[in-house]
Design brief:
The chain is mostly beta strands. The chain contains two helices and 36 strands.
Length: 426
């Protein structure tokens, strides 16, 4: 009886020579000299390589892949795809070595584990505002896995407007999506909605008479009603009836600066048949005395910037610069009055210097305890104030002279800048 016993990693496959077949053990009758060969072959084992994540694994054994004979040594090399990293082997092989060698002594299953790389998203701010980061609607920050889509929402501070993204994200969409494929740097650029240096008060009239400059000079609305502004946005300007409507902003010394000063606003006028002039804004209202500075419409229907010298209302107690352009009813105008000094005054209409002429002979600016207000102006010693008829919006008051560039910018750029601010309140 012959019994074939394979060594480890080998298997018996049959007899050759004077004995054939694969029976094992087998009996043989010896009647002459016999030559018998027991045939053994190496067992074949599978090497099953799995992938977790995103990458590939190369197998090397004398340029052979697939099933391997017992005792074969195979080198495995894990190669991550873009944005992924190899973190280790799992299954019948546990290691972080790469490449790694594995000896085949049985069927082997190995998993190469890949994880997404983590990248930073560095968001900086130019100007005044903040940026929220969100992944699938959840606020977050810090590092992100490869291919994470992050929504960035720019939120400007008061009197600032988001303008654009810079760096690894460009454009002006807000919110905007950035896909993190590497360490990413993004800058949110915010710009002021109007010049901020020297700003004493700003009244966007978004449904109330509040001062948006954060200086606290809020107005008390007396009769004036919210109306649509020049962009057609409702509740974004104030309408004055020309009878008794006005807005009082109180008596505050910080609103009574020395020269230079600037008043900027948008105005839409209405004229009654007996029109004799309107007061748009003053920082010092007195019924019968010329004090403070004020922006007005002259009896000739032109814009005028003025200051008072403290005497009874009349030409001898004021100094006035009257612009040159006659005004039409129902038209929105941008007007800026600048007083550099007692003898240097300018009127700008729709961004351009409007020229004009001087009247009055006051030589020094005087103030009293009178309140500042919109929509009314003292007229004479024995007569009642005159009240503005029309709409006023976006009035800004400065304790400095705005430049021609700043004035032009206020007129030209507010079409994109202020309309966003007025619609969002940010």
């Amino acid at each position: 009886q012959l019994t074939a016993t394979p060594n480890t990693g080998w298997m018996f496959v049959g007899w050759e020579g004077d004995l054939t077949g694969a029976e094992n053990p087998i009996q043989v009758e010896v009647t002459s000299d016999l030559a018998v060969t027991a045939v053994f072959e190496q067992q074949q084992f599978s090497l099953n390589v799995l992938i977790e994540g995103d990458g590939a694994v190369d197998e090397v054994l004398l340029s052979t892949k697939g099933d391997y004979p017992y005792g074969a040594t195979v080198q495995l090399t894990a190669t991550p795809n873009t944005g992924w990293m190899f973190v280790g082997w799992e299954g019948d092989l546990t290691s972080t070595e790469n490449p790694v060698q594995v000896e085949i002594t049985s069927n082997v299953t190995v998993t190469a584990v890949f994880e997404r790389q983590q990248f930073s998203l560095d968001v900086t701010v130019e100007g005044e505002g903040v940026v929220d980061e969100a992944v699938m609607g959840v606020l977050s920050d810090g590092d992100y896995p490869y291919e994470t889509m992050v929504e960035l929402t720019a939120r400007p501070a008061n009197l600032w407007k988001f303008e654009r993204w810079e760096g690894d994200l460009t454009g002006s969409d807000n919110p905007a999506i950035v896909t993190v494929l590497s360490n990413t740097n993004v800058t949110a650029v915010f710009v002021p909605v109007l010049p901020l240096d020297g700003l004493l008060a700003y009244y966007p009239f978004n449904g109330n008479g509040n001062d948006a400059s954060n200086n606290g000079h809020n107005g008390a609305v007396a009769g004036a009603t919210p109306t649509a502004d020049r962009f057609g946005i409702e509740n974004s300007a104030y309408l004055f009836d020309g009878i008794d409507d006005h807005i009082d902003i109180g008596n505050d010394a910080t609103l009574k600066p020395s020269f230079p000063v600037t008043i900027s606003c948008w105005v839409r006028l209405e004229f009654d048949p007996d029109f004799i002039g309107y007061g748009i804004f003053t920082n010092n209202f007195d019924e019968h005395v010329n004090n403070g500075v004020w922006l007005a419409i002259s009896s000739t229907r032109r814009f005028a910037i003025n200051f008072g010298g403290g005497g009874p209302i009349g030409s001898s107690s004021r100094r006035t610069k009257i612009g040159s352009t006659p005004l039409e009813p129902g038209v929105w105008y941008h007007v800026v009055g600048v007083i550099h000094s007692e003898n240097e005054m300018s009127v700008y209409v729709d961004g351009a210097n409007n020229g004009g002429t001087f009247t009055g002979s006051a030589t020094a600016l005087m103030y009293s305890e009178g309140s500042g207000n919109f929509g009314r102006r003292g007229r004479g010693v024995t007569t009642d104030p005159i009240y503005f008829e029309g709409a006023i919006d976006d009035l800004a008051f400065y304790n400095r002279a705005l430049t021609q560039e700043e004035i032009s910018s206020l007129f030209n750029s507010d079409r994109s800048t202020l309309v966003t601010y007025k619609r969002t309140g940010e």
